[in-house]
Design brief:
The protein is α+β, with helices and mostly antiparallel strands and 306 residues long. The protein is built from five helices and eleven strands, in the order H-H-E-E-E-H-H-E-E-H-E-E-E-E-E-E. The chain has one domain. 15% of the residues lie in helices and 36% in strands.
């Protein structure tokens, strides 16, 4: 049976990135006016700076991650499932700790579909976050404006530079490095200048196949937009034949900010992919809805206005 790896979906997965919010005011605020006057280049500079700030603030929160990965057969029946509920915190040293709350036996593990490599990728799965440090690795193209629920957003296409460099792609293939970058589209709120939604997949793909996904964020504390929901439903086709229909639903919930160091007696440290400051293209970084409908998006959370 073909093996697939769920990487970075939630890399970015985080994710990772994503996130709806408040009702639009009839008169534009100063923040709105200023953002509308910015060039695409300045918008990119500002929202990547926000992403960098968020990636640090996120370490001050603990949260619950509920992950469900399913394989789908004929007549849309579930043929296998991996399910896990974990609690995550960051300690004072910036290390992410995981405590598994629930993890029933999975037939996907028995069949060799969900391997330890897959579970490690799932553990590190974060919605895509395009930080200032990561920006040199990507081509970011302004697409236009689009309204998502009650949000007015700027839309950007994101492509890893390595994907247009055959020499660097070959290096990744020779090193058997797959799924280390995000490729797709992101939506940036025009007031907070933060990513609120991302949609795409992880690349490159050589032997592995990765499902497309969408990640949404919500305004959790009135200032920052955190991932709350990732959904993917895709058919993965392999070079040597065969198809695997995969469905995934990942929820992030119960965000709580803490002030002091937190340790789990029975927990394990999560080995996050290290982020390097000077990563060249091709040098991969070893880095909700309450309804039952899995396609339902989280209810927009109103954000306070100045």
């Amino acid at each position: 049976m073909k093996k697939f790896t769920f990487a970075l979906l939630l890399t970015f997965a985080l994710t990772a990135s994503l996130w709806p919010a408040s009702a639009q005011q009839q008169s534009a605020t100063p923040a709105q006016k200023s953002s509308q006057q910015l060039s695409p280049e300045e918008l990119i500079k500002r929202f990547t700076a926000k992403e960098s700030e968020l990636s640090e603030i996120w370490k001050e929160y603990q949260y619950i991650q509920e992950s469900k990965i399913q394989t789908i057969g004929q007549a849309n029946t579930v043929t296998g499932e991996f399910y896990q509920v974990s609690e995550y915190v960051f300690n004072d040293a910036g290390k992410r700790l995981q405590r598994i709350i629930k993890a029933p036996p999975s037939i996907l593990e028995q069949q060799g579909v969900m391997t330890q490599e897959d579970k490690n990728a799932l553990t590190n799965l974060q919605p895509f976050a395009l930080t200032t440090r990561d920006l040199p690795l990507y081509n970011v193209t302004y697409v236009g404006k689009e309204k998502i629920d009650d949000l007015n957003t700027y839309v950007f296409d994101v492509t890893p530079k390595v994907m247009t460099n055959e020499r660097e792609l070959k290096k990744l293939k020779d090193q058997k490095i797959e799924g280390k970058y995000f490729q797709g589209r992101i939506w940036v709120d025009d007031e907070d200048l933060q990513v609120v939604k991302s949609a795409g997949k992880v690349v490159p793909e050589f032997k592995q196949r990765f499902p497309r996904f969408e990640t949404y964020r919500e305004n959790i504390d009135g200032r920052y937009w955190f991932p709350t929901y990732t959904y993917g439903d895709d058919k993965l086709y392999f070079d040597k034949g065969g198809m695997l229909h995969v469905r995934m639903v990942i929820k992030y919930k119960n965000y709580r900010r803490f002030q002091s160091d937190i340790k789990f007696i029975d927990g394990t440290e999560v080995v996050d992919d290290p982020k390097t400051d000077d990563v060249k293209p091709g040098e991969a970084k070893k880095e909700e809805p309450k309804k039952e409908d899995p396609k339902a998006k989280p209810t927009p959370t109103p954000r306070p206005r100045p």
